[in-house]
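Would you mind writing out the residues of a protein together with its fold in token form for me to study?
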Amino acid sequence: MRPVYLISGGVTKFAKAHPEKDFRLMVKEAYDYALRDIPALTPDMIDGAVGSYFSDHFTRQLKAASMVQDYLGLCPKPSKRIEGGGATGGLCLQSAWEAIASGRMECCVAFGFETMSRVSTWKGNEFIALASDTNFDFPIGGFYTGYYAMMVQRHMYEFGTTVEQMAMVSVKNHINALYNPYAQKAKRLTIEQVRQAPMVATPLTMEDICTMSDGAAVCILASERIASRVCDRPVHITGVGSGSDTMRMADRPHGKVLLLPHEQESDYATLRYPGVHSFRGGRMAAKLAYHMAGIQDPREELSFIELHDAYTSSEIQTYEDLGLCKYGEGGSFVESGIPFMPGIDYGLSLPQQGRLPVNPSGGLLACGHPVGATGLMQAVFALWQLQGAIEKHLGNGMLQVSRPRRGLIHSHAGTGTYITVTILEAVT
């Protein structure tokens, strides 16, 4: 297996709508940005591409990735489309990684997009709900906000998690987005404003939930031979992991917790796992990625994390799946201030502010969630962090993590049916 490097990336501004652009133009803008950042890479050096978008319904176009391949000028080179719900972008990145690691390609483009504004919010939620079990759950009103509301109700019952702790996630990510010009929903919030927002599914309000978006993102991956020729600061992909679970939460068995390197069985002697409060697939993805990257304790060895926060509650749940704290301690983890950025005033008391920033970009909650692009957007921001290039690309350095060594990105589909974790490391 060969080393694989992320050498460039680009994103469009995520927005409620881009009526003046179709999906091909959005991807082309991100692709052109990525190429401009490494002018030594010429299109003839690219061996192929992997495209990602979640739903044919939004574009009303089958095989849309083939149309993007043509628009980018990459025909007749190899191409394929990846789809995996909310994890589509993360799976796309890992598929491009596989093409390089296997030796099949020397340079591969991973591109993703979604144009969700072409339908109403209600219809969009229906399309998203088709990524749940349409035999059992969907016919009785199964929409995703309802699923996540149920899961966090159980988390609150089991562990004492509070709505105020969830609101702190919203405050953090929306304020981070104030410094990200690519973000869709940047604003300064208070805990009270999050809780006073319209209720969608108890206890989740409008400010606890990500938005539908239009947007695109592109990553360019390469072998060591190509990376050393065209890029001054390539980023090494050192860990790749993925996991899965049953579509219906009712089908998930209880069993022992999958332990991470810094945990032991006695930590969870009385925990009923995974229940509906935890994502077993996320724990598997983390375990595999940590093993491959040689990480023994993610709390000490990671510099930042970009994780899939479609809901404030799922960010708290994912803290636990990634081993940033023990199961049941996600609420107190955010309350400690550890996942907030240092140097930013959130209007909160945060005793350990900035020890391990989570979602400096603003995450899905505030940056946006054009599904096929989201996991790739995380990779682009991780690349810029590890290159120390946040100020160059965003126009300000407020979201730059100090001397980052390793970053983690995390994509999540459904109620945890597909999950990816990828570890990226700065090359010194």
Notes: The chain is about 35% helix and 15% strand. The two ends are 21 Å apart (CA to CA). The mean pLDDT is 95.
